[in-house]
Design brief:
The complex is a heterodimer of chains A (337) and B (328).
Chain A: H1 29-63, H2 86-117, H3 122-140, H4 143-154, H5 176-201, H6 204-212, H7 217-228, H8 230-245, H9 249-254, H10 268-273, H11 280-287, H12 296-328
Chain B: H1 2-6, H2 11-47, H3 58-67, H4 82-113, H5 116-131, H6 134-153, H7 156-161, H8 173-198, H9 201-209, H10 214-225, H11 227-242, H12 246-251, H13 265-270, H14 276-282, H15 290-318
Helix pairs in contact in B: 2-15, 4-8, 4-11, 5-8, 6-8, 8-11, 9-10, 11-15, 14-15
The chains are: A mainly alpha (337), B mainly alpha (328).
Chain lengths: 337, 328
C-alpha cells in the first residue's frame, strides 16, 4: 500500500466534526458577513419579542388593577370614571365559546371523512381534494373579507331572528351569533389540519387490528382512533382559541360595538346570542388613538390581559406537545398555523 | 340488542353523515366567494376595470358614496381606487422582501448557528411572535413607534419642505412597513426551519467533505434545495400582509395620499397612506349606503382574487423545483 503524503497547505483543512467549527479565519469575508447577519437577525427577533412582552407588561402592570377586571365599562369624559373591562372580557369569552362550539363538530367531522373515507376511487379522492382546498382557501382569506361575508349573510331577511329587525324591515345583522359564526370559520382550519394530520399519523396496524376483531369502520374511528388523537385535537383547539381571541376585524364589523353587552328580546340564552357587545380586541382598538376614545391607559390594560391569554395558550400548546411526545414517543403536530 | 345501542351507526350511514358535513364546509366557502363577488358586481358594472386606475380624488368619491342613500344615481358609483392599491403594493412589497431576507437568516441561525440553549429559547419566542394579535402590534406601533419617528426621525425642515401637499406626523409608510415585517417574519421562519431540518443531511456533508465550511455548505446546498419551501413561505406571508387591516388602520395615518417617490428617500418613507384592507375597516360603518357597500365588497373581491392568484403562482413556481424532492 503506497503511503499517501499530504501536500503542504497554506491553511489547515476545515474539520467537519460536529461541535468543532472550522476556524473563522479561514472563511471568506462574504461568509463572515452572512454569519454576522444571521446572528443579528436571530438575536434581533428574540430581542423584539422580549421588548414587546416587557413593554406591554410594564404598561399593563402600571394601568391594570384587579378592580378593572370586574367593573363594567362606563361612558365618561374623565379617565378615572370610565370603568373597567368586564363586558369586553365576557364578550371575548362568549365569542370563543360560540366559535369553538360551531367549529369543533364541523372540523372534526370533515377531518375524519378526509382522513378515513377520502381514498379509494376517483370520486372520493376528488371530493377530498376539494374539501382540503376549501379549508386552505378559508385559511388564506383575510379576516375582513370573512367579516364582510358575514355582514352579507346576516343582513338577509331569513336570518333576521339572529340579530334584530329594525322598523322599516332592515335587518341589523350584527350580534354575538353573527360574529361567533364567522369566528368559527376562522377557527376551522387549525382544528381541521391538526385532526387530519393526527389521524394520518396513527399507524395502519391499529386500524387493521380493530378490523380483524370485527369492528366496523365507524366503530374503530369512534373507539380506537379518536381517543388516540386526543392531544392533536387539544392542540388544534388551543391554536383555534388563540386565533379567535386575537381577531379584531370580525368583531368590529359584526358585533355592533356597544360598550355594554346589550340583549335583544327576553328569552334567556337567545337574547344574549342576539345581542351586541364588544370584545377585548375591539375595546383596545376603540380606546387607542385610532378609535374614538383617547384612553391609552385602558387600551394598555386590555391589551395586557389579551397578551396574558395568548401567552397562556402558547404555554398550553407547548405542554400538550411535550406530554404527547412523552406518552407516545411520536412528536405531535406542532408548529404555527 | 345492547350492541345496537352501543354502536348505533352503520358504516354507510356514518360515511354519508360525515361526507355531508364536509360538503357543508365546502358549500360555505364557495358561498363566501359567490356572495362577495355578487355584492361587488355594481362597481364593475359602472366602472369597468378602470376603477383600478388613477383619476380624481378617492376621498371625495368615497364621501360621495356615503352621502347617497337608497337608489343612488349612476354617478355615485364612480371610483378610481389606484391610491389604495398603490399603498397595498408598497407596504406588502417592502414587508415581504425584508421579511424573506430576515426569515432566511434567522432560520439559518436557529437551525445551524445557535447553541442548543439559545435554540431552546428562540423557538418558543418565535412562536410567541407569530401568535401576538395584530391589535397589540397596532397599539405598540401607534403609541411607541409613531412618536419616535415623529419626534426624533423627522426633522422640521423635512416637514416644511412637503407642507403644501401633506403633513408628516410619523404615521406612515416606515412604521407600517417595519411592523408588518415583524408580523409576517415568524410565519416564514416556522416553515423554513421545518424545511431546513428536513433537507437531506448527506448533501450538506458531501459539500463539507469537499472543503466548504459549514455555513457556506448550508448556503450553497441546503438553501438551494429548500427553495420550494421558501416560495411557500413567501406566498403565505404575502397573503397575510395583504389582509392586514387593523394594524395598518391604526398606524398608517389614514389618508388617501400616495407616497411620492419624487420627494426623495427619507421623506417618502414618512408619508401617510392607506391600503385596501384598512380602507374597508375604516369605512365599515357606512355599509348601509349601497354605493359604498359594493365598493367595499369590490375591495374584498380584489383581495380574494389576489389570494387565489398568489397560491396558483406559488404552485407554478414550485413546479420546476420539484426535482429537488424536498417537500414544501
Amino acid at each position: 500500500m503506497s503511503a499517501f503524503v499530504p501536500e503542504l497547505q497554506a491553511s489547515p483543512p476545515p474539520t467537519s466534526k460536529r461541535g468543532r467549527r472550522s476556524s473563522l479565519w479561514t472563511w471568506r469575508w462574504s461568509d463572515r458577513l452572512v454569519l454576522l447577519c444571521a446572528w443579528t437577525a436571530g438575536l434581533g427577533l428574540c430581542a423584539i419579542a422580549a421588548a414587546i412582552v416587557i413593554y406591554m407588561g410594564y404598561r399593563g402592570i402600571e394601568y391594570l388593577t384587579p378592580s378593572l377586571l370586574v367593573t363594567r365599562p362606563a361612558i365618561s369624559t374623565s379617565q378615572a370614571q370610565t370603568g373597567g373591562i368586564l363586558d369586553p372580557l365576557i364578550g371575548t369569552l362568549l365569542l370563543t365559546v360560540i366559535g369553538i362550539a360551531l367549529a369543533f363538530p364541523l372540523a372534526v367531522a370533515s377531518a375524519i371523512w378526509v382522513a378515513e373515507y377520502g381514498h379509494g376511487g376517483r370520486a372520493r379522492q376528488t371530493l377530498a381534494r376539494i374539501v382540503e382546498s376549501s379549508i386552505e382557501i378559508v385559511a388564506g382569506t383575510p379576516d375582513i373579507v370573512l367579516a364582510l361575508f358575514g355582514v352579507a349573510i346576516f343582513q338577509l331577511g331569513i336570518l333576521a331572528p339572529l340579530s334584530f329587525r329594525a322598523e322599516g324591515g332592515g335587518v341589523y345583522g350584527r350580534s354575538f351569533i353573527a360574529a361567533g359564526a364567522m369566528m368559527s370559520l376562522i377557527a376551522l382550519p387549525p382544528l381541521f389540519v391538526a385532526t387530519r394530520d393526527g389521524l394520518r399519523a396513527v399507524p395502519a396496524h391499529m386500524r387493521e387490528a380493530a378490523f380483524a376483531l370485527g369492528k366496523t369502520r365507524i366503530a374503530t374511528i369512534r373507539r380506537v382512533l379518536l381517543p388516540s388523537v386526543r392531544s392533536n385535537i387539544a392542540t388544534g383547539v388551543t391554536l383555534s382559541v388563540s386565533r379567535i381571541i386575537g381577531d379584531t376585524a370580525i368583531v368590529v364589523l359584526l358585533l355592533g360595538k356597544t360598550l355594554h353587552i346589550e340583549t335583544q328580546g327576553s328569552t334567556p340564552v337567545a337574547s344574549l346570542l342576539r345581542g351586541t357587545g364588544s370584545s377585548l380586541t375591539s375595546y383596545v382598538y376603540d380606546n387607542s388613538p385610532a378609535g374614538e376614545g383617547a384612553a391609552p391607559q385602558k387600551a394598555y390594560a386590555a391589551a395586557f390581559v389579551l397578551l396574558l391569554f395568548v401567552l397562556g395558550l402558547n404555554l398550553l400548546v407547548d405542554r400538550i406537545g411535550r406530554s404527547q411526545a412523552q406518552s407516545t414517543g411520536m412528536s405531535g403536530v406542532g408548529g404555527v398555523v | 340488542m345492547l350492541d345496537r345501542l352501543r354502536d348505533p351507526w352503520s358504516d354507510s350511514r356514518a360515511e354519508l353523515m360525515l361526507g355531508a358535513v364536509s360538503l357543508l364546509v365546502c358549500a360555505s366557502v364557495i358561498g363566501m366567494v359567490v356572495f362577495v363577488f355578487a355584492r361587488a358586481w355594481p362597481v364593475f358594472e359602472h366602472n369597468g376595470l378602470s376603477w383600478l386606475g388613477p383619476g380624481g380624488s378617492l376621498k371625495t368619491q368615497l364621501a360621495n358614496m356615503q352621502a347617497t342613500s337608497v337608489n343612488p344615481p349612476a354617478s355615485a358609483y364612480h371610483l378610481r381606487a389606484w391610491p389604495i392599491i398603490y399603498g397595498t403594493l408598497l407596504t406588502t412589497g417592502i414587508a415581504v422582501v425584508l421579511g424573506v431576507a430576515i426569515a432566511v437568516l434567522s432560520s439559518i441561525f436557529i437551525v445551524e448557528l445557535a447553541p442548543a440553549r439559545l435554540r431552546r429559547v428562540a423557538i418558543p419566542v418565535i412562536r410567541l411572535l407569530a401568535s401576538v394579535p395584530s391589535v397589540i402590534y397596532g397599539l405598540i406601533a401607534i403609541l411607541v413607534l409613531v412618536p419616535f419617528v415623529g419626534n426624533h426621525l423627522i426633522t422640521a425642515s423635512q416637514k416644511t419642505s412637503v407642507q403644501s401637499s401633506v403633513e408628516l406626523t410619523g404615521e406612515g409608510l416606515l412604521v407600517v412597513a417595519v411592523t408588518l415585517t415583524v408580523m409576517i417574519t415568524p410565519i416564514m421562519i416556522a416553515l423554513i426551519c421545518e424545511a431546513l431540518a428536513a433537507a437531506p443531511r448527506s448533501w450538506r456533508e458531501g459539500a463539507v467533505a469537499l472543503g466548504l465550511n459549514p455555513l457556506r455548505a448550508m448556503l450553497a446546498v441546503t438553501l438551494r434545495a429548500i427553495r420550494p419551501a421558501i416560495v411557500a413561505a413567501a406566498v403565505l406571508a404575502t397573503a397575510r400582509a395583504l389582509g392586514e387591516a387593523v394594524m395598518i388602520s391604526m398606524a398608517s395615518g389614514a389618508s388617501f395620499f400616495t407616497p411620492n417617490l419624487s420627494h426623495g428617500a427619507p421623506i417618502f418613507l414618512y408619508e401617510p397612506l392607506r391600503t385596501l384592507a384598512s380602507t374597508i375597516i375604516d369605512f365599515s360603518e357606512g355599509i348601509g349606503a349601497p354605493a359604498l357597500d359594493s365598493t367595499l365588497y369590490a375591495f374584498a373581491a380584489l383581495l380574494l382574487l389576489s389570494a387565489f392568484v398568489l397560491s396558483i403562482g406559488g404552485y407554478l413556481i414550485k413546479l420546476p423545483l420539484r426535482k429537488y424532492q424536498v417537500r414544501a
